Amino acid sequence: MATVIVVTSGKGGVGKTTTSASFATGLAQRGYRTVVIDFDVGLRNLDLIMGCERRVVYDFINIINGEANLNQALIRDKRVENLHILPASQTRDKEALTKEGVERVLNELRQNFEYIVCDSPAGIERGALMALYFADEALVVTNPEVSSVRDSDRILGILASRSRRAEQGEAPVKEHLVLARYAPERADRGDMLSVEDVLEILGIPLLGVIPESPTVLQSSNAGVPVVLEDGSDAGAAYGDLVDRFLGKNLPHRFITTQKKGFLKRLFGGG
Amino acid sequence: MLLRSPRFATEPAPPFELKGSLFTLTVLHLFQLDRDAIERHLARKVKQAPSFFNNTPVVIDLEDLAEPPANNPDGMNFDGLYELLRGHGMAPVGVRNGSPELQAVARRAGLPLLPDSRSTGATRKPERSEPAPIRSRIVNHPVRSGQQVYAPDGDLIVLGTVSAGAEVIADGNIHIYGALRGRALAGVKGDVESRIFCQSLEAELISIAGRYRISEQINLDPADRGKAMQVHLADDRLIIDHLMR
Lengths: 270, 245
Ligand SMILES: Nc1ncnc2c1ncn2[C@@H]1O[C@H](COP(=O)(O)OP(=O)(O)O)[C@@H](O)[C@H]1O
Ligand SMILES: [Mg+2]
What we know:
The complex is a heterodimer.
Chain A: E1 3-8, H1 16-29, E2 34-38, H2 46-49, H3 60-64, H4 70-73, E3 75-76, E4 83-86, H5 99-112, E5 115-119, H6 126-133, E6 137-142, H7 146-162, H8 164-167, E7 174-182, H9 184-189, H10 195-202, E8 206-211, H11 214-221, H12 233-245, H13 262-267
Parallel strand pairs in A: 1-5, 1-6, 2-4, 2-5, 6-7, 7-8
Antiparallel strand pairs in A: 3-4
Chain B: H1 6-10, E1 26-29, H2 35-48, E2 56-61, H3 78-87, E3 90-96, H4 100-108, H5 117-121, E4 137-139, E5 148-151, E6 156-158, E7 167-170, E8 174-180, E9 183-186, E10 196-201, E11 205-208, E12 211-214, H6 215-218, E13 229-234, E14 237-242
Parallel strand pairs in B: 1-2, 2-3, 4-6, 5-7, 6-8, 7-9, 8-10, 9-11
Antiparallel strand pairs in B: 10-13, 11-12, 13-14
């Protein structure tokens, strides 16, 4: 039984695509057949971050319109087995994303994949609504600032009222919080909301805290999901996030400023 | 099982208990304060129905009474009226309506002021043999930014937080078992008795029966942040109080 997971936020530029790429890659690394779909019609950049932009032939809208079949459009990742990418169209307009079309493609993907990750565009327009409509679970990506948290709250309301699960009266979409671009020093200074502040406002379980890190930009420019970058804070945080999603109970790292001694770092703890 | 507090079991019975109750009272609408005219009219009434005038409690309604001459407000003599009515088998228990001056005179004569029928009339439900069912709407999830929930004809109960940017509305009370960070409007059809209850008051707006305060007018004592609070109306003013003292 395939699980559909939407990566969503309301606000743009908070790290949805970065999270989608690393989350999908991390699931595939752990042996799960995974596909990641770019719902950001017109602004595609998942393929850039995944480093497969030069292999795009057909896209999501081509499949919806019946102009190509899935096998032609799915891009197999070169680094990680079990991982496929379904890119968005850069040219077509968003109206092509119909509920029936999206459902048909998802149902076909369900036959072959265990996890279907939907990278949502920003906003609460059609593209975002379609990306979340069929979701079983949601990664709600938030930055530690008031406007981002407010938009995530809005998206949580939409998940609870306008998703297919809500409309059919089924069990609600399972919500996970991803707090991205977190800088503990700035939270300590009060320039940013703290982890606790965000949890108090949104009131959903915390799946992971991704630290603000220059490696993210470098790796996305290089077309490598940051989860594959050894020795990077952000990459390690995404790795933990995937493990937690799969049921491991791991403490949250990268949320405090306190300098750790060498031994403590060596032997973990906190 | 008997649910009884130990205090009741060990302490002696209290000498009295205060309880609210409703009475049907005769209202005497006073039009003029002409002692002779009143006496004549009273005598005629007593003759028509002698059994009625047997220590019958009455409320004196001053609404239609002309103002006393400005230079002599005490010319209105309630003491005399009181004796006159008592003498004819009536027991005045209070006054109602009338100008503040008239009411002050009545108070000096020992007659308490009863609530103005017009102000309470707005909220008094028409009398029925059975009370109208009050429907509560229960919301089992947080109310998020951009969402609006309305409970017509009754109370709204939210089992969660009301986020900033969310709005909860009820014809009756609003109970929030979480923080109130958005807008809450109780008694939107004019019920001045309605209240708002919440576990933490961080609202963008609170309103009862149309009287409202916005966030910057709420001025909560910082010590009360995160405490359970209630909002109600008193003398047409929004009062913010602890849920429990
Ligand atoms: N943890 C992070 N640290 C530093 N920069 C980040 C981080 N996450 C995302 N970014 C940067 O933020 C920008 C937006 O990220 P992206 O994933 O495209 O957001 P979205 O898909 O929500 O619009 C990109 O430039 C990305 O490199
Ligand atoms: Mg994006």
